[in-house]
Design goal:
The chain is an alpha/beta fold. It contains 15 helices and 9 strands.
């Protein structure tokens, strides 16, 4: 008598083997089919993703193995279902291990997202020293004086920072780090002493933090919220009118739209994480911007040297409506001008 019962017969085991073999074969073949046919639409990955280029085969590249290396990378980058597989991997890392696979992203308490460099700046870990900052601002004051001789105004703007605005949501490893001297504090102090014109939006946002009816920063973005952008632009217009003594285009908004679905840069960090499921950002505010133009108003020319915070203003079309010549030097390395882009497009170049 058999003491151990048999649950499967020989034919059943054979069927199971066939099923497992079919599943394995399908898993191997489907990505290749998807790669060459694109049969199933996949949402592209967000962020700085370079499209793979098929390498050119030469005798030299073959024998020095550079072709094989590049072709292997080409196949890996272009494999079917890669975006979905990456999102699954990123979601597992986020949901189970509280880790972001995106470069430089830090997950704080209650899923507040940061970029590491902003936290380092808040803690003073990137401090370049008071002497160097004073040297830079001395040059800025020289430029300010020279521009004034030609009836042009120089203005230094300190944008707010998410780490400065939400330090209470830092992960424990950063919350226990002592804050040292910061570039921000040194720039403010030296700007005052040297008489450099400036607006400190960072300080203003912090003062509004407890009283603002709507979020000035979203949980899942790294830049000021679009509501915060509207407030900053309104303040900037009033400042420019005051120093020039001339009225500009009437900028404002007619009501607020509330949404739990982030728009534009209000979700830029979460988008770059490439997850399967969105991270809740709570309710955000979106002003319905309006521009009232009447005779006698001016549209001044501006040259902005700045970082990605200005993209919220330029990319939304606000700067194009308020300024006649809207030149943006991104990190003082790339020049952007909507009129130049439009003229090239219209000419078909």
């Amino acid at each position: 008598m058999d003491l151990i019962p048999s649950f499967t017969s020989g034919s059943d085991m054979k069927t199971i083997r066939y099923i497992l073999f079919f599943i394995l074969l399908t898993a191997l073949v489907l990505p290749a089919i998807q790669q060459y046919t694109g049969l199933i639409h996949e949402k592209p990955l967000s962020g700085a993703i370079e499209k793979p280029v098929r390498p050119h085969l030469t005798l030299k590249s073959w024998f020095d193995a550079s072709f094989q290396e590049k072709y292997d990378d080409y196949l890996e980058q272009g494999i079917g279902f890669r975006p979905t597989l990456i999102r699954i991997n990123n979601q597992v890392a986020f949901s189970l291990f509280d880790t972001a696979q995106a470069n430089g992203v830090i997950i704080g308490k209650n899923n507040y997202l940061y970029e590491a460099n902003y936290i380092k700046a808040y803690l003073g870990l990137d401090y370049i020293g008071d002497a160097r900052i004073r040297e830079q601002l001395t040059k800025a004051r020289f430029v300010q004086d020279k521009l004034k001789e030609h009836n042009k105004h120089f203005l230094l703007i300190f944008a707010p920072g998410k780490a400065s605005y939400f330090p209470e949501y830092f992960p424990e490893g950063y919350r226990n780090t002592k804050q040292g001297p910061t570039n921000y504090a040194s720039f403010i102090n030296n700007s005052k002493e040297l008489g450099v014109n400036y607006i400190d939006f960072n300080d203003w946002f912090l003062k509004m933090k407890k009283t603002s009816p709507y979020p000035l920063y979203s949980k899942t973005g790294i830049h000021w919220s679009l509501y915060g952008v509207a407030l900053a632009v309104d303040s900037l217009v009033r400042y420019m009118e005051n120093v020039s003594g001339k009225p500009m285009i009437d900028f404002g908004w007619d009501g607020i739209d509330l949404s739990r679905t982030p728009r534009d840069t209000d979700d830029d960090v979460a988008e770059g994480m490439n997850l399967l499921f969105p991270i809740s950002s709570g309710e955000l505010a979106y002003p319905r911007i309006r521009y009232n133009e009447v005779p006698g108003q001016v549209k001044p020319s501006v040259l902005v040297v700045g970082d990605s915070y200005y993209w919220n203003i330029m990319g939304s079309g606000i700067s194009e409506r308020l300024f006649s010549n809207n030149e943006f030097w991104f990190y003082n390395q790339e020049a952007h001008n909507p009129e130049m882009a439009c003229s090239k497009k219209c000419e078909g170049h």
